[in-house]
Amino acid sequence: MVVMWIIYVALCALVGYLGRERKLGFWPYLGFSLLLSPLMGIILVLVSEKKQTAPDVEEVPAGA
Fold this sequence. Notes:
Radius of gyration: 18 Å
Mean pLDDT: 88
Structural class: mainly alpha
Order of helices and strands: HHH
Distance between the termini: 68 Å
Largest sheet: none
């Protein structure tokens, strides 16, 4: 029984890890998958948006 709980928590942590680059981040997806199930957590990760990153700005040399 303990092994099943360890596997469950490990799967939930994997879902959180996959969600770290998504809009909500690691902890909310870990929490969702712990409360609902890892399957529901992975579905939430797959349908969520990725984090928006700032566009790369090229540095212009001073005096140019």
